[in-house]
Design a protein that fits this description.
By secondary structure, the protein is mainly β. It is built from 1 helix and 9 strands; from the N terminus they run ββαβββββββ. The protein starts with a strand and ends in a 22-residue tail after the last strand.
Amino acid sequence: MRLSNGFLIDKEKTVGELKFTAVRDVVLQNEDGTPSTQLKKRIYDLKCSLHGGIIPVSVPPEVPLREFPYNAVVELVNPVADTVSRKTYTGADVDWYVKAEDIILKNKPSQNAGNPQPPTPQGQPKK
């Protein structure tokens, strides 16, 4: 499905299992070309089981840093793929990239969830 900012990804069919390897910050540049202290985005490098390599996934700067153990199985929240192209003499070079709203440990509740409450019993207790 095409969105205004890319293609929505079917996670299982597109990337399979993802394992955390590293995270790095990308900062904005000052007018003089030096790096600023303002965070532009975070890039998480993830091992991709279907492609046998590392895929970089960018997450917005307002998402808190997620620190995972090396090789922890993670999943992407609302991942989107898109392209950037550059005109060349013979046509164009195209690079794919993946963005996500967040990255979380697989099979774990959202890290933004508050204190979990015990389940509320349904119906009347049996006598």
